[in-house]
Design a protein that fits this description.
Blueprint (H helix, E strand, L loop, with lengths): L3 E4 L4 E5 L5 H18 L4 H17 L1 H12 L3 H25 L15 E8 L2 E5 L7 H12 L3 E5 L5 H14 L6 E3 L7 H6 L3 E7 L2 H13 L3 E5 L4 E5 L5 H13 L9 E7 H16 L19 H16 L3 E4 L14 E4 L16 E7 L2 H9 L8 E3 L3 H10 L6 E2 L18 E2 L4 H5 L3 E8 L1
Parallel strand pairs: 4-5, 4-7, 5-6, 7-8, 9-10, 9-14, 10-13, 12-13, 14-15
Antiparallel strand pairs: 1-2, 3-17, 8-16, 11-12
Helix pairs in contact: 2-4, 2-6, 3-4, 4-5, 9-10
C-alpha cells in the first residue's frame, strides 16, 4: 500500500510520501534509544512540563490538525476537533497522574522477608514500538504515547499508510513540547518492515491496535523475541435493549454509537440485541433516525456521516451487507452504494440476522447496524457472547436484576449501563478473547510498559 494521503471524500491522491530507507529506519531507532537514555535521567516534573506544553501546542493547532484528520481519513470536521481536544485531555491526565500511578509501595513489615526495608518501584523499560490504525489517527497514538513518555520510555510509531501527515505531525509534536530529540519518532514504512524493527534489540516491547491477523503476527514475532505486547484488535460490540429501557434515549444513543467516526471505531455498537416486547418499536424509531442522518462532505459542519476511509474498507462492508441480504436479511434503510465520487456508504439498518450470515460473527467497520430479536435477558446474553470478540458492550435496562446479570455475564472488557461505549483516560481500555490482551489508559495502561522492581535491604 502506498504511503499517501488519498482524500476519502473525493478518491483523489493529494500527497505521496517516500518510505524511510533502511538507513533512515536504523537512525530513527538509534535516536529513540539515545532519547530513552536521556529520559531515564529526567524527573516526573520535567516530563509533565513537556507533556503539558505539547498539549498546549495541540490545542493551539486545533483547526489545522482537525482539517488534517478529516482530509486523511474522512471523519466529520466536528468529530476531528473532538479527537484533537480529547488527545490534549489525555496528555494532561498523564502529566497530572503519572507520578502517582508509578509510585511503588513499601512493606509495612520488612522483617517478614528478613530485611530492614523493602519496597517496589516502577522503572521505564526502553523503546516501545506502536503499530497504529487510521481510524483515530491522533487519539490511538496519544493513548499509548502519553503514558509511555511520562513513564520515561521512548516511542516509535509505525502508523497506517493512509495517514502519513498525522504520523509526521506526531513525529515533531513531543519534541516541540520539550522532550529530548528522538523521544518519539515516526517510521514511514510498509507493514513488511515491522518485523525487522520489532526484532531490533533496541526495541523492547510493542503495542498494536488493528486487525486480528496483524495482532497475531506482531504477537508471534514479539513472543519469539520474549518482548511484551499490548493488543487491541477490534470488536463486534453488543448494544442490548430491554423492555424497561428509556426507548427514546436508547434509540438516540444507538444512532451515535453506530455512526460515530462514520461507523469506523472498534467500540462502535454493531449488534443491536432487542427484546421482542419492544423490538418493533425500537426498529421503527432506529430506522427513522438513521435514515434522517445527513451523509456528505466531512468538511461541512452540517454533515452527520462522511465517507469510509478507504475503498477497500467499503468493498469489505458491501460484501458483508450483500451476504446478509442474499440470505434473507431486510434492509429497513440503506444497503446500497450511492453514486458519485468518494467512498461513501449510507447509514444502514439490517434486521432478521441469522447465524449463517457473516454479519452474525464478523465486525462491520462502517455505518451498518445489525438488529436481533430476543425473547429474554438470557437469550440476549447468549447472542451477545456468541462471538470471538470481547471488547466492550452496552446494556439498556432499569431492572437491577438484569443489570447484574449482564455485568457479570458479558464477555467484554467493559460494560456500559444506559449509555454508549467510549474510552476515557480515567478508565482502563481493552478486551478479551480475539479483541486482544493488555490494557491501555488509566493506571493499568501506564503500568504495561514499565519494570516493576523489588528492592530488598538487609
Amino acid at each position: 500500500m502506498a504511503i499517501a494521503t488519498i482524500n476519502p471524500a473525493t478518491g483523489v491522491t493529494e500527497r505521496e510520501f517516500d518510505a524511510h530507507t533502511d538507513a533512515e529506519i536504523d537512525a530513527r531507532i538509534g535516536q529513540a534509544h539515545d532519547a530513552y537514555r536521556a529520559m531515564k535521567a529526567t524527573s516526573f516534573a520535567d516530563r509533565a512540563g513537556w507533556m503539558r506544553a505539547a498539549a498546549n501546542l495541540l490545542e493551539a493547532e486545533l483547526d489545522s490538525a482537525a482539517a488534517m484528520l478529516t482530509t486523511e481519513m474522512g471523519k466529520t470536521i466536528g468529530q476531528s476537533r473532538a479527537e484533537v481536544l480529547k488527545c490534549a485531555k489525555g496528555m494532561r491526565f498523564y502529566a497530572d497522574h503519572a507520578e502517582e500511578f508509578l509510585t511503588g509501595r513499601s512493606l509495612d513489615d520488612p522483617s517478614a522477608v528478613n530485611a530492614s526495608a523493602a519496597h517496589t518501584r516502577y522503572d521505564p523499560i526502553g523503546v516501545v514500538l506502536a503499530v497504529m490504525p487510521w481510524n483515530y489517527p491522533l487519539w490511538q497514538v496519544i493513548r499509548f504515547a502519553a503514558p509511555a513518555l511520562m513513564a520515561g520510555n521512548a516511542g516509535l510509531l509505525k502508523h497506517a499508510s493512509n495517514v502519513p501527515q498525522a504520523a509526521l505531525y506526531l513525529d515533531t509534536l513531543f519534541e516541540r513540547g520539550g522532550f529530548p530529540t528522538g523521544a518519539f519518532r515516526s517510521l514511514l514504512i510498509p507493514a513488511s518492515k515491522v518485523e525487522g524493527v520489532l526484532r531490533d534489540r533496541r526495541v523492547v516491547a510493542a503495542t498494536l491496535t488493528g486487525s486480528e491477523p496483524a495482532g497475531r503476527s506482531v504477537a508471534s514475532i514479539a513472543g519469539s523475541e520474549v518482548k511484551h505486547v499490548v493488543l487491541e484488535l477490534g470488536g463486534s460490540d453488543p448494544f442490548i435493549v430491554m423492555p424497561s429501557a428509556d426507548i427514546e434515549k436508547a434509540v438516540a444513543t444507538a444512532v451515535s454509537a453506530r455512526t460515530a467516526n462514520n461507523g469506523q471505531a472498534c467500540i462502535n455498537a454493531k449488534r443491536f440485541i432487542v427484546h421482542t416486547d419492544i423490538h418493533d418499536d425500537f426498529l421503527e424509531r432506529f430506522t427513522a433516525a438513521m435514515s434522517a442522518l445527513r451523509v456528505g462532505d466531512p468538511m461541512d459542519e452540517s454533515t452527520d456521516v462522511g465517507p469510509l476511509a478507504t475503498s477497500s474498507g467499503r468493498e469489505d462492508l458491501v460484501g458483508l451487507v450483500d451476504d446478509a441480504l442474499g440470505k434473507g436479511a431486510v434492509a429497513t434503510t440503506g444497503g446500497a452504494v450511492p453514486d458519485g465520487a468518494g467512498w461513501y456508504y449510507p447509514p444502514t439498518v439490517l434486521s432478521g440476522i441469522t447465524e449463517d450470515m457473516r454479519l452474525y460473527a464478523e465486525e462491520a467497520f462502517g455505518p451498518v447496524a445489525s438488529v436481533f430479536r430476543v425473547d429474554s435477558a438470557e437469550d440476549a446474553l447468549r447472542i451477545a457472547n456468541d462471538t470471538t470478540f470481547g471488547l466492550s458492550s452496552a446494556v439498556w435496562t432499569q431492572d437491577e436484576h438484569e443489570e447484574e446479570l449482564f455485568v457479570r455475564g458479558l464477555d467484554a472488557g467493559a460494560v456500559f449501563i444506559n449509555g454508549m461505549s467510549i474510552s476515557y483516560p480515567e478508565l482502563p481500555f481493552g478486551g478479551i478473547k480475539d479483541s486482544g490482551v493488555g490494557r491501555e489508559l488509566s493506571v493499568e495502561g501506564i503500568r504495561e510498559f514499565v519494570n516493576l522492581k523489588s528492592v530488598w535491604k538487609a
